[in-house]
């Protein structure tokens, strides 16, 4: 058993970066995720493991530092909140095009624009449908606890290097700011330069005599080559869609209705399940852990099982609900409930919405 | 057993740190805990609140609107959270600065003169520990031993010499709590 601590989600994520053997963190502070860089600066990981922590001059600079470090095969991370993540989109598109591994976190706040500093889940479209330009995907993991804020950093680096892809840890002000008990995994060693050379034949680690030049780029003016590269990317995303779907089911065995939710909304909906079950309503919860890939097959299996309606619960005007609709494909009722713009819905509001939108409606 | 608590008052009263000590003591007790602060533009003089959940089971929602216990330390919080106590639940408040006292008859209401007791002890900073003591009198599940361990965990080493003072403050809180309205 690892070390047990009481930590904020943001702090757990920062500590996990050190323990996952990250080589560098580049970031720029913004509420509600500033504790990530605050914790790292206070913890001085450069003394513990040699990990670099640097406050960049802007979010744009930070993501381009990630691009550079990732290109040389280093384990590198950044984090921000909604307006800052919007600024990073150009870099993320380049990272996708160049197939670089990295982990980044978005502790989402209400938008659009500078919006508010309170929690929101309105960055779903940006996270799973691109965000930057071009046909690309990134793996999106949605932690629902402080424990998962830590664990998904480790998992994130594993997946990032397995597929040479950006992994986004998508949380929000609730998960980032709350404190819970967390069991931290043991310190993993950082890779040496020799190990990086050996493990990652694509990384720019210096040209040795008699070897090919390694180039990290997203540019190819030969469109046929670029189409081929895009086919390769799409094949990779398909492989990820087949192998990396993650979810959790609560009380779905006999469910007539199912809440579909992720992150803090999944925690809230879990309480709503308890409230509704006390009234005799057979409702369950499908908690999405990976948002890309989306658990389409699991939703179809619930349709096969006879679920009559799905209520997507998210702190947005209705984004994830579109993917639920695509998966359900007309076989059951689908609706959305959520407060947004920085307001967090209560378990009672969600339960009431179930009665009104699914059962009564 | 699950205990869902809201602590609400002014920023600077030690609302968040009191919640943190409760959460630490829950961990020492081998319980599941969550600590969800209101965050943002809070500062000394503004309002601050924190939701603390202690449970023997996995905790679902860290965000709640109904509580077993509300610890209320200013009028704004009274206006906001008196109605949020579950029927049969507890409202504990410091009457100092309260102009509209609680009127509910379906909950147990207690007063603790936290500000006064702390002032009499000569250190207004231990206000939150007096309040915590009053709460511990009501809910003996939170034990002194664990609170002291929690204090050691949450306070920087240089403040450990103040732990006996905090212990005294808790004891004073336990002594000075008085019922205001009890459900018969």
Provide an overview of this structure.
Chain A contains 15 helices and 14 strands. Chain A is an alpha/beta fold and 361 residues long. Chain A has two domains: 191 residues, Rossmann fold; 114 residues, Rossmann fold. Chain B is globular. The model of chain B has no long low-confidence stretch (mean pLDDT 92). Chain B is an alpha/beta fold and 184 residues long. Chain B has a seven-stranded mixed sheet with strand order 2-3-1-4-5-6-7, with helices on both faces. Helix content of chain B is 35%, strand content 26%. Chain B has a single domain, classed as Pyruvate-ferredoxin Oxidoreductase, domain 3, CATH 3.40.920.10. The relative contact order of chain B is 0.18. Chain B starts with a strand and ends with a strand. Chains A and B meet through helix 9, strand 8 and helix 12 of A and helix 1 and strand 2 of B. Strand 8 of chain A pairs antiparallel with strand 2 of chain B, so a sheet runs across the interface.
Quick structural overview:
The complex is a heterodimer of chains A (361) and B (184). Chain A is α/β, with parallel strands linked by helices. Helix content of chain A is 43%, strand content 20%.
Summarize this structure as a short list of keywords or feature phrases.
heterodimer, A: about 350 residues, alpha/beta, Rossmann fold, 5-stranded mixed beta sheet, B: about 180 residues, Pyruvate-ferredoxin Oxidoreductase, domain 3, 7-stranded mixed beta sheet, 6 helices, about 25% strand, globular
At the first level of CATH, what is the class of the largest domain in chain A? Alpha Beta
Class from helix and strand fractions of chain A: alpha/beta
C-alpha-based Rg of chain A, rounded: 21 Å
Low-pLDDT windows of residues of chain B? none
How is the quaternary structure best described? heterodimer
| Widest β-sheet, arrangement of strands of chain B | 2-3-1-4-5-6-7
- Give the percentage of residues in beta strands of chain B: 25-35%
Please give the share of residues in helix of chain A.
Answer: 40-55%
How many beta-strand elements of chain B? Answer: 7
List the helices and strands of chain B in order: EHEEEHEEHHHHE
Report strand % of chain A: 15-25%
CATH structural fold name of the largest domain in chain A = Rossmann fold
């Amino acid at each position: 058993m690892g070390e047990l601590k009481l930590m904020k989600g943001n702090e757990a994520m920062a500590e996990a970066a050190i323990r996952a053997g990250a080589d560098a963190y580049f970031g720029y502070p913004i509420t509600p995720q500033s504790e990530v860089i605050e914790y790292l600066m206070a913890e001085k990981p450069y003394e513990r493991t040699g990990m670099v922590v640097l406050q960049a001059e802007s979010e744009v600079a930070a993501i381009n530092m990630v691009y550079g470090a990732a290109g040389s095969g280093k384990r590198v991370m950044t984090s921000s909140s909604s307006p800052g993540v919007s600024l990073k989109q150009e870099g993320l598109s380049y990272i996708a095009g160049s197939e670089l591994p990295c982990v980044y976190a978005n502790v989402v706040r209400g938008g659009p624009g500078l919006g508010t500093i309170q929690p929101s889940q309105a960055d779903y479209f940006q996270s799973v449908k691109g965000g930057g330009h071009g046909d690309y995907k990134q793996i999106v993991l949605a932690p629902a606890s402080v424990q998962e804020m830590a664990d998904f950093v480790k998992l994130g680096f594993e997946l990032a290097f397995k597929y040479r892809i950006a992994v986004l840890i998508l949380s929000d002000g609730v998960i980032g700011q709350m404190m819970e008990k967390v069991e931290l995994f043991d310190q993993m060693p950082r890779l040496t330069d020799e190990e990086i050379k050996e493990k990652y034949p694509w990384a720019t680690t210096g040209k040795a005599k008699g070897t090919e030049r390694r180039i990290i780029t997203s540019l190819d003016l030969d469109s046929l080559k670029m189409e081929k590269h895009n086919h390769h990317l799409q094949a990779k995303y398909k492989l990820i869609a087949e192998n990396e779907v993650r979810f959790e089911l609560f009380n779905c065995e006999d469910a007539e209705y199912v809440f579909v939710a992720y992150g803090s909304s999944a925690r809230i909906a879990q309480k709503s399940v308890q409230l509704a079950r006390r009234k005799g309503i057979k409702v369950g919860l499908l908690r999405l852990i990976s948002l890309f890939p989306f658990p389409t097959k699991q939703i179809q299996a619930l349709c096969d099982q006879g679920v009559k309606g799905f209520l997507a619960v998210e702190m947005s005007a209705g984004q994830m609900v579109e993917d639920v609709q695509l998966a359900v494909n007309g076989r059951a009722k689908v609706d959305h409930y959520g407060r947004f713009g920085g307001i967090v819905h209560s378990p009672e509001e969600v339960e009431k919405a179930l009665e009104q939108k699914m059962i009564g409606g | 057993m699950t205990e869902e608590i809201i602590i609400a008052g002014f920023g600077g009263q030690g609302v968040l740190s009191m919640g943190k000590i409760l959460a630490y003591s829950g961990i020492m007790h081998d319980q599941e805990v969550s600590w969800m602060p209101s965050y943002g533009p809070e500062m000394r003089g503004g309002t601050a609140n924190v939701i603390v959940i202690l449970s023997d089971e996995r905790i679902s929602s860290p965000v709640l609107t109904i509580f077993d216990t509300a610890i209320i330390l200013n009028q704004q919080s009274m206006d906001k959270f008196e109605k949020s106590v579950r029927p049969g639940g507890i409202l504990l408040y410091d009457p100092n600065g309260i102009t509209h006292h609680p009127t509910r008859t379906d909950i147990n209401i207690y007063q603790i003169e936290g500000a006064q007791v702390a002032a009499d002890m000569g250190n207004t900073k231990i206000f939150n520990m007096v309040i915590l003591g009053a709460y511990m009198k009501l809910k003996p599940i939170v034990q002194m031993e664990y609170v002291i361990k929690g204090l050691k965990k949450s306070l920087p080493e240089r403040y450990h010499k103040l732990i006996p003072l905090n212990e005294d403050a808790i004891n004073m809180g336990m002594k000075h709590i008085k019922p205001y309205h009890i459900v018969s």
